[in-house]
From TrEMBL:
Role description: Involved in the biosynthesis of the thiazole moiety of thiamine. Catalyzes the conversion of NAD and glycine to adenosine diphosphate 5-(2-hydroxyethyl)-4-methylthiazole-2-carboxylate (ADT), an adenylated thiazole intermediate, using free sulfide as a source of sulfur.
Known catalytic reactions: hydrogen sulfide + glycine + NAD(+) = ADP-5-ethyl-4-methylthiazole-2-carboxylate + nicotinamide + 3 H2O + H(+)
Protein name listed in UniProt: Thiamine thiazole synthase
Keyword Repeat: no
The organism's place on the tree of life at top rank: Archaea
Listed PANTHER family: THIAMINE THIAZOLE SYNTHASE (PTHR43422:SF3)
InterPro entries registered for this protein in UniProt: FAD/NAD-bd_sf, Thi4_fam, Thi4_prok
């Protein structure tokens, strides 16, 4: 078979353009591809929700790749063990109730689950603003290529419409802060000191719709609530992603 470079180029450009056009309107947009965003995306996709995950970096996985202090291992507690099983992530009981797993396998399997569930990924894409109109709800996301932002170029963005947005941007709670900065009646308190037990116990309760159309999950949920951080224990991230998916699916009637 003789390979034609232009056919290769045409395949990439046409396919991704078709997908981007299709996703200019969607049910749910997940901003951030860390553990909470990935879990949420996979579980929404499995329920038949048309959703995309938007990640500013080249790679998906957020803060999970590095495990704890670059030892590529994560710990998950008893309460979230069923999610390790659900996503097929191998684990070993290190001490009663503490399960240790490879962070690389965890990212890979969560990502694979989201792919299998039909989630689309837009990587190298930064959410730089939100759309809020007279109905006072987040109804869309303003996006640009990350390299445009990195190069400091003035290139105007594009807008995606979404019925629900999930802020899964981690410690910085980027989308929530954008909405707060627009004068909306929400306050992003910022995360508190390390206290794994408290942070992990409370994170699911902090996973909620903080403004019409905007649900927070993962570390962003704790940052909005002024809640503690937890270090490299990841059960709360998975449980929070699961909770966010349930909330969004319910809102969408799925
Ligand atoms: C597009 C964006 C934008 C943007 C950021 O940090 P993450 O892994 O987030 P979580 O909440 O799923 O997981 C948190 C966990 O990794 C962690 O840090 C823990 C448990 N820490 C405890 C502790 O004590 O430190 O992923 C967030 C993702 C990243 O990939 C960002 O690149 C991405 O969001 N992102 N994507 N547009 N504007 N901002
Ligand atoms: Fe962290």
């Amino acid at each position: 078979m003789e390979l034609n470079e232009v056919t290769i180029s045409r395949a990439i450009v046409e396919e991704q353009t078709r997908i981007l056009l299709d996703y200019l309107e969607m049910d749910a947009a997940i901003v951030g591809g860390g553990p909470s965003g990935l879990a949420c995306a996979a579980l929404l996709g499995e329920r038949g929700v048309k959703c995309a995950l938007i990640e500013k970096k080249l790679s998906i996985g957020g803060g999970m790749w590095g495990g704890g202090m670059m030892f590529p291992r994560i710990v998950v507690q008893e309460e979230a063990r069923r999610l390790l099983d659900r996503f097929g992530i191998t684990h070993r009981e290190y001490a009663p109730g503490y399960f240790v797993a490879s962070s690389v396998e965890a990212v890979a399997k969560l990502t694979a689950a989201a792919c299998d569930a039909g989630v689309e990924f837009f990587n190298l894409t930064t959410v730089e603003d939100v759309m809020i109109k007279s109905d006072a709800r987040v109804s869309g996301l303003v996006v640009n290529w990350t390299p445009v932002e990195m190069a400091g170029l003035h290139v105007d963005p594009l807008t995606l419409a979404c019925a629900c947005t999930i802020d899964a941007t981690g410690h910085d709670a980027v989308v929530a802060r954008m909405v707060e900065a627009k004068g909306a009646e929400i306050a992003v308190k910022g995360e508190s000191f390390m206290w794994a037990e408290r942070a992990e116990t409370n994170i699911v309760g902090h996973t909620r719709e903080i403004y019409p159309g905007l649900v927070v999950t993962g570390m962003a949920a704790n940052a909005v609530a002024g809640e503690s951080r937890m270090g490299p224990i990841f059960g709360g991230m998975l449980l929070s992603g699961e909770r966010a998916a349930a909330l969004v699916a319910e809102k969408l009637g799925k």
